[in-house]
Design a protein that fits this description.
The protein is α/β, with parallel strands linked by helices. 31% of the residues lie in helices and 14% in strands. The protein is built from 7 helices and 7 strands, in the order ββαααβαββαβαβα. It has a 7-stranded mixed beta sheet with strand order 1-3-2-4-7-5-6, sandwiched between helices. Helix 5 links the parallel strand 5 and strand 6. Helix 5 packs antiparallel against helix 7. The longest helix has 30 residues. It is globular, with a radius of gyration of 18 Å.
């Protein structure tokens, strides 16, 4: 039996920016994997290659936090009480029972019970969130202000979750509550200055639990989420990385992160 990977990996940087990638993980422990429906065993709802895409964050001096385990084990971007992020809309939960296309994650009768969910919260969710809190505190103490950047990606056409086609780039600030208006304006200016991608602010994806929970601009903690349609850098059917597409996206992503760092540094 192979050794279980660490819960997360945290690379500490020197810039006032923490990039969190809570859906990058693909590992599923064997005892959980054996209960998954056949279509779920590929963990299709992963934010594929998102840590690779955000490799540029390290070159900018950002801290980067990446989990090892799949969102099918536990969704690190949900509240531990599993309150819906989007009331009245189809969504997935803390320990998802349905995939993004509406089909089951587990075989019949194999879904986790309440005790197992609580155990997963303790084993996987709490350590990740403690790491978030600790790194935010460290960077805030060092710089006086910090930006928490939530990096996500998703297939652009998912009728179960949203109507129509998702814009290429989806900036979320909890409707303006999780970051300063000035930071949102600076990021929107970067997006508006380019013509390669369509974008929207606070559309279908306004920011998940992490953005909403940790964002506290009055205390100097700015939190934003960027949900990227996966067609911008990969093949959505095969899940393969597309270098040509990624090479177009990377400079824009770098400009957005640099703008966030500049804002936090008062530049």
């Amino acid at each position: 039996m192979s050794e279980a990977p660490p819960i997360f990996q945290l690379q500490r940087g020197t810039a006032p920016l923490l990039v969190s990638l809570p859906h990058d993980g693909t590992h599923v422990p064997a005892e959980i994997g054996a209960r998954l429906a056949p279509s779920a065993r590929r963990v299709p709802d992963t934010d594929w290659h998102i840590a690779r895409l955000y490799g540029i964050a390290r070159t900018l001096g950002a801290s980067v936090l990446v989990p090892s385990h799949s969102r099918y084990v536990i969704d690190l971007n949900r509240a531990e009480d599993d309150v819906s992020l989007y009331p009245g809309q189809n969504t997935t939960g803390l320990c998802p029972l349905v995939q993004f296309d509406g089909t089951p994650v587990y075989r019949d009768g194999a879904a986790p019970d309440a005790d197992e969910v609580r155990a997963r919260v303790d084993r996987y969710w709490r350590p990740y969130h403690a790491a978030l809190q600790g790194e935010i505190a460290r960077l805030l103490a060092a710089h006086g202000r910090v930006v928490l950047w939530e990096g996500h990606s998703i297939k652009g056409d998912l009728p179960f979750l949203f109507e129509g086609r998702l814009p290429d780039l989806n900036l979320g600030t909890a409707g303006g509550a999780s970051c300063s208006p000035a930071l949102q304006a600076r990021l929107e200016a970067v997006l508006a200055a380019q013509t390669d991608y369509g974008w929207v602010a606070n559309g279908r994806f306004k920011g998940g639990h992490i953005t909403r929970h940790f964002g506290d601009p009055a205390r100097g903690i700015e939190a934003v989420q960027l949900e990227i349609s996966q067609r911008c850098y990969m093949d959505e059917t095969t899940f393969e990385w597309d270098a040509a597409r990624a090479d177009v996206l990377t400079p824009l992503l770098r400009s957005l992160l640099a703008a966030a760092i500049g804002f936090a540094a008062g530049a």
